[in-house]
Design goal:
By secondary structure, the protein is mainly beta. It has one domain: Quinohemoprotein amine dehydrogenase alpha subunit, domain 2 (Lipocalin). Helices cover 13% and strands 65% of the residues. It has one helix and nine strands, in the order αβββββββββ. The N and C termini lie far apart (42 Å). The relative contact order is 0.19.
Length: 119
């Protein structure tokens, strides 16, 4: 009986976890217009790897990525105007949409993205 309950609990936990593997296109509104960013995710359990890119800052590799239930988080180091900037992303997954908050490490500048999964 205990084994059946354990298996049911494990199944429920796996069913609740989102799988974000694939390509996502994100857009953020800023005072100067829109920023577009592409996210390519590879998920293995709760571990998240991949890269992100934009025309303004090029490609960046994901670091410390994880997915727990409907929560996603990772950081990147991007080159902005000749300076390396650490940016922390946190988000909530809802079906084929992720709402991200991207904030410069140490506080300061932040932006909200809405990313949609590509077919």
């Amino acid at each position: 009986m205990k084994q059946v309950m354990l298996l049911a609990a494990l199944f429920a936990m796996n069913a609740a976890a989102a799988d974000v593997s694939g390509t996502w296109k994100g857009t953020a509104e800023i005072p100067n217009g829109k920023i577009e960013r592409t996210f390519v995710f590879h998920q293995d359990g709760t571990k998240l790897t991949g890269e992100t890119s934009s025309q303004r800052t090029g490609k960046s590799e994901l670091k410390d990525g994880k997915v727990e239930g409907d929560k996603i988080s990772f950081s990147i180091t991007m080159n902005f105007q000749g300076n390396n900037v650490e940016v922390n992303y946190t988000g909530v997954i809802s079906g084929d949409e992720i709402k991200f908050r991207a904030e410069a490490a140490g506080g300061g500048y932040g932006v909200d993205y809405v990313a949609k999964k590509e077919p």
